[in-house]
Design brief:
The complex is a heterodimer. Chain A is α+β, with helices and mostly antiparallel strands. Chain A has one helix and five strands. Chain A has a four-stranded mixed beta sheet, covered by helices on one side. The longest helix of chain A has 18 residues. Chain A is globular, with a radius of gyration of 13 Å. The termini of chain A are far apart. Chain B has five helices and 24 strands. In chain B, strands 6-5-9-10-11-8-7-24 form an eight-stranded antiparallel beta sheet. A six-stranded antiparallel barrel of chain B has the order 16-17-20-23-22-21. Chain B has a three-stranded mixed beta sheet with strand order 1-2-3, covered by helices on one side. The two termini of chain B are about 45 Å apart. The chains are: A alpha+beta, B alpha+beta. Chains A and B meet through helix 1, strand 1 and strand 5 of A and strand 17, strand 18, strand 22 and strand 23 of B.
C-alpha cells in the first residue's frame, strides 16, 4: 500500500483535470512533491485566462501550476 | 595554501604517490591475468592530483580512481605533507565523454546514445539494446517516431546509423531493420512511443556503456518519483543530467506529424543547472537513475517551464515500454 497522501493525490487527478480544463489548455496533470506533501502538478500550454480563478487545492490536495508551452516529439530538425 | 605552494606540492607528490599506489595493483593484475609483465604496462587507475579551492585558499585536490585506495596509507602521508589542506574524493573510473559531434557520426560498434532513424525520418537516438522475451533475439530500442516513422513503416525497413539528418545513406549506413512497433493512436490514449529494430548480421554493438556515466546496471523501480536524479546520453545534447519534476502525468498532449496525441502515465524531467535535459534529436534516449538503472524512454519535450526556464522533457516509464514490446533490457 502506498503512502495515503500519494493515494489522495492520485484520486484527485480526474476531478482536477475536469476543473482546470475549464480554465485553460491543460497539457499534463501529474503527481509531484509540494513542500513535503504529495500534490498535483497541472501543466498549461499557455497562461490561463484568469490566474486568480485557479484553485489552490482539489479535494484537500495542494496544486502547483506551470506554463510549459507546446510539447513536441524530440526528433531532429 | 598559496597557489604556488599547492603547485609545488602537487609536483613533489605526483610521481612518488602514483608509484606507491600502482604497486599493489600491478601485482594483483599480473596474478589474475597470468600473462607476461610487459602486457601490464598500461597506466593503472590510481590517483589524479590537482589544485582545488576551499574559500579563499587553495588546496591539493586528490581524486581516487579505485575504491580500494580510499584507506591507503599513502593518503595519510599526502594529508601530512599538505598540512591538512587537501580535498580527497573517490571519483571511480573516468570514462570518455560522449559529445553530440561524436554521437552524430557513424559508430561501429553501435553505442547507446548515437544518431539513428528510419530512412524516411530525420534522426533520433539509439536508446539501448533489448532481448525479445520469446525469440531471445537482440534488438535496438528507440521510439516509434524514430524507427517506425509514426506508424508509416513496415517490418524490415532500413534503419540508418547515423540517421539521414546526419548524412546516413542507404545502403552503406543500414545498421538495422525495423522489427516491431507499438502503434501511435490519434483517437485513444497512448502510454508509450516505442519500437524495436534488429541489428544487421555481424554488426558490433556495445550494450552497456552510457558514455562517461558508466555501465548500464539494470532496470529501476516501477515508479520513478519526483526528485529522482536522472541521466541520459542523446544524439543532440549528448550527456545530460536532470531531475524528475512530476510522475504519473496524464493528458500530456504531444505534437506529431500525424497530429496531437495524448499520453498518460508519463514522467516529466527538468535539466540540471542551466541546461535543458533534451532537445530535438534526443528522442529515443534511455533515461537512467543515479545507480544507472533504466527508468524511462525519452520521447518529447518543450522549450518552456522548469526551474531553470530551459523547458521540460517527457518520457515513458521503462517498465511500460518493455512490457508493451515484450522485451527485456540487455545489460
Amino acid at each position: 500500500m502506498d503512502d495515503p497522501a500519494l493515494e489522495s493525490a492520485r484520486a484527485a487527478k480526474a476531478r482536477a483535470l475536469a476543473l482546470f480544463s475549464e480554465l485553460g489548455d491543460v497539457v499534463g496533470i501529474g503527481l509531484t512533491k509540494i513542500g513535503d506533501r504529495y500534490g498535483l502538478k497541472i501543466n498549461f500550454s499557455s497562461p490561463p485566462r484568469d490566474p486568480s480563478a485557479l484553485p489552490r487545492e482539489v479535494d484537500g490536495v495542494p496544486v502547483k501550476v506551470e506554463v510549459v508551452g507546446t510539447i513536441r516529439k524530440r526528433s531532429a530538425g | 595554501m598559496k597557489l604556488d605552494s599547492a603547485r609545488e606540492l602537487k609536483t613533489q607528490l605526483l610521481s612518488a604517490a602514483v608509484r606507491t599506489l600502482e604497486a599493489p595493483a600491478a601485482i594483483r593484475a599480473m596474478g589474475v591475468r597470468a600473462q607476461s609483465s610487459d602486457v601490464v604496462n598500461d597506466p593503472l587507475r590510481t590517483v589524479a592530483l590537482g589544485i582545488g579551492r576551499s574559500g579563499q585558499q587553495h588546496v591539493l585536490a586528490v581524486r581516487l580512481q579505485r575504491r580500494a585506495l580510499v584507506n591507503h596509507p599513502v593518503l595519510d602521508d599526502i594529508r601530512k605533507k599538505a598540512k591538512g589542506e587537501v580535498d580527497i574524493r573517490y571519483v571511480g573510473r573516468v570514462l570518455k565523454l560522449e559529445t553530440p559531434s561524436k554521437l552524430q557520426k557513424r559508430r561501429r560498434p553501435l553505442v547507446i546514445g548515437c544518431s539513428i532513424g528510419h530512412f524516411s525520418i530525420t534522426a533520433g537516438t539509439l536508446g539501448c539494446f533489448v532481448k525479445d522475451r520469446k525469440s531471445k533475439a537482440t534488438l535496438i530500442l528507440s521510439n516509434n517516431h524514430v524507427l517506425a516513422n509514426e506508424n508509416n513503416a513496415k517490418k524490415g525497413d532500413a534503419i540508418l546509423q547515423p540517421g539521414s539528418f546526419d548524412k546516413g545513406k542507404r545502403p552503406k549506413d543500414v545498421a538495422a531493420n525495423l522489427q516491431t512497433f507499438v502503434k501511435l493512436k490519434a483517437r485513444a490514449v497512448n502510454f508509450v512511443d516505442c519500437a524495436t529494430a534488429a541489428p544487421v548480421a555481424g554488426i558490433a554493438f556495445d550494450a552497456r556503456t552510457l558514455g562517461s556515466f558508466g555501465k548500464l546496471a539494470g532496470v529501476g523501480s516501477a515508479v520513478t518519483e519526483d526528485g529522482t536524479v536522472v541521466h541520459k546520453v542523446g544524439r543532440t545534447t549528448g550527456e545530460t543530467s536532470g531531475r524528475v519534476t512530476a510522475f504519473e502525468l496524464d493528458n500530456v498532449i504531444v505534437g506529431y506529424d500525424i497530429g496531437n496525441l495524448r499520453f498518460d502515465n508519463q514522467v516529466e524531467i527538468e535539466g540540471a543547472g542551466l541546461k535543458s535535459f533534451s532537445d530535438g534529436g534526443d528522442s529515443g534516449s534511455l533515461i537512467v537513475d543515479e545507480a544507472l538503472n533504466a527508468v524511462a524512454l525519452l520521447f518529447a519535450g518543450g522549450d518552456e517551464g522548469g526551474t531553470n526556464g530551459m523547458g521540460l522533457t517527457y518520457a515513458n516509464p521503462i517498465h511500460a515500454v518493455l512490457d508493451a514490446l515484450r522485451v527485456d533490457l540487455l545489460t
